Amino acid sequence: VAMAYLAWRLAQRWCPSSLQVISFPVVQLHLNRTAMRASQKDFENAMNQVKLLKKDPGNEAKLKLYALYKQATEGPCNMPKPGVFDLINKAKWDAWNALGSLPKETARQNYVDLVSSLSSSLESSSQVEPGTDRKSTGYETLMVTSEDGITKIMLNRPTKKNALNVEMYHEIMHALKAASKDDSAITVLTGNGDYYSSGNDLTNFTDIPPGGVEEKAKNGAILLREFVGCFIDFPKPLIAVVNGPAVGISVTLLGLFDAVYASDRATFHTPFSHLGQSPEGCSSYTFPKIMSPAKAIEMLVFGKKLTAGEACAQGLVTEVFPDSTFQKEVWTRLKAFAKLPPNAMRISKEIIRNREKEKLHAVNAEECSVLQGRWLSDECMNAVVNFLSRKSKL
Ligand SMILES: CCCC/C=C/CC(=O)SCCNC(=O)CCNC(=O)[C@H](O)C(C)(C)COP(=O)(O)OP(=O)(O)OC[C@H]1O[C@@H](n2cnc3c(N)ncnc32)[C@H](O)[C@@H]1OP(=O)(O)O
């Protein structure tokens, strides 16, 4: 029920006046389009095209497609209204019912038009899919630059506090793979805006695939394992420039970095229990080693938020700088590091890190498998619903 609620809320959030948005353009198209009629063949082609869309068109578009399909094939909605707790079916019923007495032929035409516009918009945004050689501007969620021997990967969703959505996970993996092969000596991860990162984007939980929440959790675990694996295997010195508060996975990953420089404005918070979740990013292994098991439990189990000074005292942060001089001091230092012989740095990192790699991959696999189960728990679903319905913030 919680997941159904999530999907429903998301549809509402993207389309607050969903009934008007669904019905209004449809009726307008009907008025303007008396001369145009999609054939049954066009309709069938459009149905096949939907299955081939490279990106998920989102809940709002899916609701419109559903409503138009039902109207085109069955006519006006004559089903009984689903109960108030049957949230997904109620959202679908609302969308269909809002089409009123729209003629079947018009619904068919509108369905074909909608699929055509979705295909072209999703096609053009997929031109920067992983696999192609991206320049900095090719990223949707990152700014990646390379100069003075430093590749800088900047998380770039400042209005969302740099929350990591699915696209950002993929783009970071792509940027790390590219940085591991480019001619820079060191790689830096930082955030744009006032946050370093608010961790996993909680709306990632709302986009449920046809296989349901189990498939969603399985896909999430696969993505997470691959994502964390890229940090474990990264061959060059990897440095975090923590410009502001860090939450969740953006904190746990720090245990896999080679140096962590933080502004004194930064905080470090892993509220996994509050979210019904469990530690990831290999933190169940790295944190107890870095800061002692008891201190790790305070953070990872009880969700204690550390200041930058406390995180430095615990060994998670290398050094803290006053916010007013943070950028200047850190980048001066990094530019000096980047002038050191790159092969020597790479080999030294290898000898320090390599004997732990196998262990880290095993920990990563175990953490992902535990999280997969957690994501299906009532505790987790309720926490996500509460955040999305703005009942709770950290
Ligand atoms: C597939 C791999 C999965 C790996 C799993 C990882 C686990 C984790 O990372 S757990 C950590 C998850 N993160 C959170 O729980 C943080 C949730 N966010 C908040 O509590 C607050 O937003 C904040 C304390 C970070 C900031 O509060 P503040 O009042 O300053 O700003 P807001 O108005 O809340 O935020 C602005 C804007 O950004 C959206 N947003 C921020 N963080 C997230 C997030 N993690 N997920 C989704 N959206 C986020 C927030 O909703 C606002 O959006 P709108 O302007 O559209 O309302």
From TrEMBL:
GO MF annotation list: delta(3)-delta(2)-enoyl-CoA isomerase activity; fatty-acyl-CoA binding
Record has Signal as a keyword: no
PROSITE patterns: ACB_1, ACB_2
A GO-annotated cellular component: mitochondrion
Pfam families attached to this UniProt entry: ACBP, ECH_1
Keyword annotations from UniProtKB, A to Z: Acetylation, Isomerase, Mitochondrion, Peroxisome, Phosphoprotein, Transit peptide
Record-linked InterPro entries: Acyl-CoA-binding_prot_CS (IPR022408), Acyl-CoA-binding_protein (IPR000582), Acyl-CoA-binding_sf (IPR035984), ClpP/crotonase-like_dom_sf (IPR029045), ECH/Chromodomain_protein (IPR051053), Enoyl-CoA_hydra/iso (IPR001753), Enoyl-CoA_hydra_C (IPR014748), FERM/acyl-CoA-bd_prot_sf (IPR014352)
Record domain ACB: where: 39-124
Highest taxon above the source species: Eukaryota
Family to which the UniProt record says this protein belongs: In the C-terminal section; belongs to the enoyl-CoA hydratase/isomerase family.
Protein role: Able to isomerize both 3-cis and 3-trans double bonds into the 2-trans form in a range of enoyl-CoA species. Has a preference for 3-trans substrates.
Record's protein name: Enoyl-CoA delta isomerase 2
